[in-house]
Amino acid sequence: MGWTVVRNQLDEESLLVNESLFALGNGYLGVRGNFEEGYAPGINSIRGTYINAFHDEVPIEQAEKLHAFPEVSEKLVNIIDAQTIMICFDDEWFSLFDGDILDYKREINMDEGYSERRIRWRSPQGKTVRLHFRRLVSFRTKELFLQWIDIYPESACRNIRVISYLDGDVTNAADPDDPRVASGHTKRTNTTDVFQDGPNHTVVNRTFETRLETAASVRIRTSRTPDVYSCEYHGEAVVEDMTFREEEHIRVSKWTVYTDTYRHGPDVKSEARTIHNELADVSIADVLTGQREYLHGFWQSADIQVEGDANLQTGIRFNLFQLLQSVGKEPASNISAKGLSGEGYEGHYFWDTEIYMFPVFLMTEPSIAKNLLEHRYSLLPAAKYRAKEVGHEQGALFPWRTIKGRECSGFFPAGTAQYHISADIAYSFVQYYFATNDMAFMSEYGAEILVETARLWIDTGHEKDGQFRIDDVTGPDEYTCIINNNFYTNAMARFNLRWAVKSLALVQDYSQEAFDRLVMRLGIEPEEIFAFQRAADRMYLPYDPERDIHAQDDTFLDKDRWNLAATPKEKFPLLLHYHPLTLYRYQVCKQADTVLAHFLLDDLADETTMRKTYEYYEAVTTHDSSLSYCVFSIMAARLGDQEKALRYFSETARLDLDNTHGNTKDGLHMANMGGTWSALVYGFAGMRMSESGLSFRPSLPKSWTSLTFHIRYHGRIIQLYIDHDAAEYTLVHGEPITVTHRAAPIKLADGTAVRAVL
């Protein structure tokens, strides 16, 4: 139960949404869920194939360019299309928009790692045929996109013709009415080579500005030799045409290998040939076995079981599956806001990674989490350059949106001004240390990141009246921009500064030699460490004593409240219908801001202040961002309101499956998907990590029977089973360990379940 998603709609809106829902990928390669044969004339499609981090550079047009405004953006490129396969029965082309559909089922199998369409179709002239389309993007051979079609004629048919296309003439999608989708620069590659190499046919494309190359090389296999075969090159496309004259089952499989400059070096063509040769004796069954084994290992660690709501269970697994499909699994790439499922936000990486998606992999597949951190570390030189570019004498200002390290946000009030991203990245390095106790990594990577980001805060802030203040920044709430002392930013900066000091002490205890190298390389003086600690100790955190809440910033509570109840439904999201200045002048939040700080930093407030703050901001938050629901769910659970937590969780768990934000067609909401996991583990299970260890405050909503999941912590695998009476902790693997259950220590050892009353 809960391992498949089925969608049988054929209307235009559903088809576009399903292209995202049925996207397949492996973190390197992603292919949208388009029909092989295409749609009816006039029906829109976003036909896309993407390689993580494979991008071009495009100009940012600034009407009034000022100093350090970015001039160039990086853009994920739609690459060579290998999806198209046309089938003709005598002189009638198969299409779900012609003839009669006698039976149709489309589903994605999340435990097997492939999608399929089963069709029984009658042509306009009365021929009946069964078709079984299947496809996958391999987790074992990251370059492989495999399609196979079984054709079963049920009526007399003289000729069955199958035509395969490999097309280099591709463009990116555009939407001039939505700032979340690019509105120009749609053609970003040219085809530089089309050729035959033995049984392979290959197209090579090159980006206009970055001069990166990708090759797509196809090898067709058939269950029996075609009676007629031809191959023609039409401009930028390869067209293979096969005709079969016997009325029996035919299987046609299309093995497409993608290579690119980043991972395979300058000779992408020979690398594609090498991979094809390695696959020559590999069968479809072999690939399926590898896919199944890989996913079995993933689900053993990552699966979360919710008893009591089958729809939510499917949503949870779908979100985890899509995160796995989109996350980069080597330091050359990260995970973008839309993953590899679409072109929303142009393939850029945001703070979404560190705060919303990184925790999933940190606690289930820490090797992937480590790669994500190494990727961020690789962008440190660019972040240090960006800090100087905008006027800082020191520190690292990580870009708001980027692919290879360049700031790609053309709207600085809600982009570059979100300095908190540097603290978010620092926070994730500390969380990795909490979860793994990996001092070698802290010594080699983490301490440097913490020091360079701490330097940014020293250079950005200033002391006034004995307090350290940070002016003119934007917090997570993009409906309130360029303000002084954003609570979230200041709180995260304080954490960043404190851990810069702690990390240096940890490295020194770990290895004096490593510490000395680090101090020399970064030019750290004792006075600087003192300055970090002083700024942290004096950090100003806005607080309103009359309301007993933390103020979002210095002026937020002075503004009039936006009347959300009187705002027409069609005016949401507000960013598409109101000028930013209008939004900035009201108490209205796009997403969780101060509430998010209370989740990430659990020691900022006592229970009463935390609750009052939550209730205050809940009333002025639109949740126009998909990043918001999960945070409110987590904090509702933390404050003991499980039913409210469930309502918010229900919004996050199936946001894309139900297209509740109306823009799933542009790609899946990856941060929201990560937030689903967090709402379960940090919310209902109440998990928190700190220097002192791992703790839980479990509780369930009434409608659920139980919640079960695994986490990895300090080399152990721990299973947690929660019902309405108790939580059951089991050490599945590793040395004995003590965790905390509602402030009481519990020792786990030897695979024995320990049951603790709620």
TrEMBL record:
Q: Where is the Glycoside hydrolase family 65 N-terminal domain?
A: 8-259
Please name one Pfam family that this protein belongs to: Glyco_hydro_65N
Positions of the Glycoside hydrolase family 65 central catalytic domain = 317-677
Among its keywords, does the record have Hydrolase?
A: no
Q: Where is the Glycoside hydrolase family 65 C-terminal domain?
A: 687-743
Q: GO annotations under biological process?
A: carbohydrate metabolic process
Task: Kindly state which keywords UniProt assigns to this record, in alphabetical order.
Answer: Glycosyltransferase, Transferase
User: What InterPro entries does the annotation carry?
Assistant: 6-hairpin_glycosidase_sf (IPR008928), 6hp_glycosidase-like_sf (IPR012341), Gal_mutarotase_sf_dom (IPR011013), GH65_N (IPR037018), Glyco_hydro_65_C (IPR005194), Glyco_hydro_65_M (IPR005195), Glyco_hydro_65_N (IPR005196), Malt_Pase/Glycosyl_Hdrlase (IPR017045)
Q: Where is the active site?
A: E478
Q: Does the keyword Lipoprotein apply?
A: no
The UniProt GO MF terms for this protein read:
carbohydrate binding; glycosyltransferase activity; hydrolase activity, hydrolyzing O-glycosyl compounds
Q: Which residues bind substrate?
A: W351, D352, K590, Q591
Which superkingdom heads the taxonomic lineage of this protein's source?
Answer: Bacteria
PANTHER family hit by this protein = GLYCOSYL HYDROLASE-RELATED (PTHR11051), PROTEIN-GLUCOSYLGALACTOSYLHYDROXYLYSINE GLUCOSIDASE (PTHR11051:SF8)
Would you identify the family this protein belongs to, as annotated?
Belongs to the glycosyl hydrolase 65 family.
Question: Which named protein is this?
Answer: Alpha,alpha-trehalose phosphorylase
- The organism is Salisediminibacterium halotolerans
